[in-house]
């Protein structure tokens, strides 16, 4: 009888084990389904502490490029249970003051741009001293490691410029105008320098006040009227491409308008042939990956790049690509 009871016990235990395994598997699937549903509904997909991350960019007000960067960062923040703070100023001194204010708030991580690196150096040193991890995005790849950032996420601006020069060569262009809309932005200088390096024709820089679109339009128009040999105009931001198209019409010019960066208007312009090509550096990805990487660093001490930039571009986008990207551009993620 003892033997029978023993085998009966083993059989019962086996049955219970199978039942428990089934419950565990079902429970795991339900938990995974719940996590996916939470993410789709805008709730956190993780249960890590609610860390606070601040992002400070050199964006001017109303710049659609930075709206896309911010959208990516905010989406990642939802997924990662992050309290996300955002501030911006197009002047280096004021941007540094905003960074300092986040340091004073004892944020758990910082995301910053280094368009004007000299103005930001002391603030990043403060962050490092306070033990706050920093990710740089978009601009400042050359200074990022020197200033103590964990990683830089964006495109190499000179390489992006070189891609533009090569694309202009493919299109048979001979004389190009590179329109810089923000004085002192090292990334903008690098873009035009890169284009000049690989372009077989001649390239001139034109400096305009990017906060004043009528000034941008009149500046480009005047240059096109003065030199009918200009057959390509390269703007350094998506909002300026449409203005360049208007300037071309004012000047009755045949120059092709090309641009860095992508938004809904640029996608439409590519589709209609009003624009020749755009250089996409995937701003949504820059914001998203910066938040995600800080979360990974806080959670698991993960770092990407090995001290080198994590590249999100450049990608040359033309009329043939516009259709598939237009949907994403209209929703504000490309």
Please provide a brief summary of the model.
With 334 residues, the protein is of the alpha/beta class. The chain contains twelve helices and twelve strands.
List the helices and strands and how they pair.
Layout: H1 2-40, E1 52-57, H2 64-79, E2 83-88, H3 92-104, E3 109-112, H4 117-129, E4 134-137, H5 141-144, E5 151-155, H6 157-170, E6 175-180, H7 186-198, E7 202-207, H8 213-226, E8 232-235, H9 238-251, E9 256-260, H10 264-272, E10 278-280, H11 283-300, E11 310-313, E12 315-317, H12 319-330
Parallel strand pairs: 1-2, 1-3, 3-4, 4-5, 5-11, 6-7, 6-8, 8-9, 9-10
Antiparallel strand pairs: 10-12
Helix pairs in contact: 2-11, 3-4, 6-7, 8-9, 10-12
- So what's the overall shape? globular
Work out the number of β strands.
12
Number of helices: 12
Helix-strand pattern: HEHEHEHEHEHEHEHEHEHEHEEH
Rg calculated over all Cα atoms = 25 Å
CATH superfamily (homologous) name of the largest domain: Response regulator
Identify the quaternary structure here: single chain
Strand residue content: 15-25%
Per CATH, the architecture of the largest domain is 3-Layer(aba) Sandwich
Q: What is the C-level CATH assignment of the largest domain? A: Alpha Beta
Percent helix, as a range, is 40-55%
What profile does the largest beta sheet have? 6 strands, parallel
Give the mean pLDDT: 88
Helix-and-strand structural type: alpha/beta
CATH domain fold name of the largest domain: Rossmann fold
In which order are the strands of the major sheet placed?
2-1-3-4-5-11
Number of domains: 2
Distance between the termini: 74 Å
Domain Periplasmic binding protein: 53-296
Protein name: Sugar ABC transporter substrate-binding protein
Family: Belongs to the bacterial solute-binding protein 2 family.
Organism: Streptomyces cavernicola
């Amino acid at each position: 009888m003892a033997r029978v009871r023993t085998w009966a016990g083993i059989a019962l235990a086996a049955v219970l084990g199978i039942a428990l395994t089934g419950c565990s598997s079902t429970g795991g699937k339900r938990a995974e389904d719940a996590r996916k549903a939470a993410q789709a509904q805008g709730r956190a997909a993780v249960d890590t502490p609610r860390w606070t991350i601040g992002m400070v960019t050199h964006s001017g007000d109303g710049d659609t490029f930075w709206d896309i960067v911010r959208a990516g960062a905010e989406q990642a923040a939802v997924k990662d249970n992050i309290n996300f703070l955002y501030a911006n100023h197009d002047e280096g001194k004021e941007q540094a003051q905003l960074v300092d204010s986040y340091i004073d708030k004892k944020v758990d991580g910082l995301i910053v741009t280094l368009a004007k690196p000299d103005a930001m150096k002391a603030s990043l040193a403060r962050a490092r001293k306070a033990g706050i991890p920093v990710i740089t995005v978009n601009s400042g790849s050359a200074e990022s490691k020197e200033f103590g950032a964990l990683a830089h996420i964006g495109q190499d601006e000179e390489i992006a410029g070189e891609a533009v020069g090569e694309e202009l060569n493919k299109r048979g262009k001979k004389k190009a105008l590179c329109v810089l809309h923000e004085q002192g932005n090292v990334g903008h200088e690098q873009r035009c320098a890169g284009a000049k390096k690989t372009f077989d024709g001649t390239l001139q820089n034109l400096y305009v006040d990017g906060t004043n679109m009528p000034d941008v339009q009149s500046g480009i128009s005047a240059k096109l009227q003065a030199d009918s040999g200009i057959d390509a105009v390269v703007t350094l931001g998506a909002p300026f491409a449409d203005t360049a198209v208007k300037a071309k019409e004012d000047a009755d010019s045949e120059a092709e308008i090309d641009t860095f960066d992508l938004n809904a208007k640029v996608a439409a312009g590519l589709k209609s042939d009003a624009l020749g090509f755009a250089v996409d550096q995937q701003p949504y990805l820059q914001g998203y990956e910066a938040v995600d990487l800080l979360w990974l660093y806080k959670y698991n001490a993960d770092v990407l790049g090995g001290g080198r930039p994590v590249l999100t571009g450049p990608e040359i986008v033309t009329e043939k690509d516009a259709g598939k990207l237009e949907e994403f551009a209209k929703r504000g993620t490309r």
